[in-house]
Amino acid sequence: FVNYFETCANCCPVIYDLCPGNTMGAVIFRAGRNYGSPSPSLYGISSKKGCFIPPLSPEDAEHVFFARENIEFQTAASAALHASDEEIETLRRIILEEVETGEAGDIIGYSSINETFHNFMAHISKNKYLQQYSRHIFWRSNSYIFFHYYQFKVSMAEREFKVSPAQHLKITEAIAKRDSNEAGKLMKQHVRRTFEGIFKK
Question: What is the pLDDT of residues 84-136, one digit of tens each?
């Protein structure tokens, strides 16, 4: 592996692990967080710099979160139609772990479980296109959550630990009731709340 640092918005260093044949490889944030391989459309490639995260901006954030809330509306709605009872129970177990991690005050662990919830939601949508787009847009939106939000508003984490799992549970219960419209609506509201928490303060 070849490791190098790129300074992004707000001077947050990012580590890229690159391996032959894989342009991006695994993206690991300062906290050691692994976000997988994002879509080439979500990062830049320069002959001098290699791979880099495009500049963050309020306009870009609005576009990213608008796309994410509509994509995840569809993943939650599709999950309500296609998820098995066992998969819904798995969602509940993920939320329980999310609550326990939040109560322990583990911000990095909490963010990992939060990502697991959203990725598993896409998985149980049983739609490969939603899975792909959901993963990519989640990765890009987390650039804002980590660089713009948690870096400066860690004091808000305690409230986040309580609010987000409760919203996840409401989404899951709508899926369990096979109410696709309600599940999608609740997920859209959940993503919108995240965006407003970053930029509407």
Answer: 999 999 999 999 999 999 888 888 888 899 999 999 999 999 999 999 999 99
Q: CA 182 from chain center: how many Å?
A: 21
Cβ distance 32 to 111 under 8 Å?
Answer: no
Q: Which strands sit side by side in the sheet containing 22-29, from one edge to the other?
A: 2-7, 13-19, 22-29
Strand partners, 4: 16
Top pLDDT among 111 and 63 is at 63
**Selection from 153, 11, 141 nearest residue 68 by Cα:** 141
Residues 6+ apart with CB under 8 A from 111: 33, 142, 145, 146, 150
Q: 162-179 pLDDT, tens per residue?
A: 889 999 999 999 999 999
3-class state of residue 122 by DSSP: helix
- Phi/psi for 101 (5° steps) reads -70, -40
The structure tokens listed for 171 are: 């989404």
CB atoms within 10 A of CB 110: 23
118-154 in b/e form (b: 16+ CB < 10 A) is bbbbbbbbbbeebbebbbbbbbbbbbbbbbbbbeeee
- Distances in whole angstroms, Cα of residue 41 to Cα of each of 8, 17, 37, 133, 152: 17, 18, 11, 11, 27
Helix axes 85-103, 107-123, angle to 10 degrees: 170
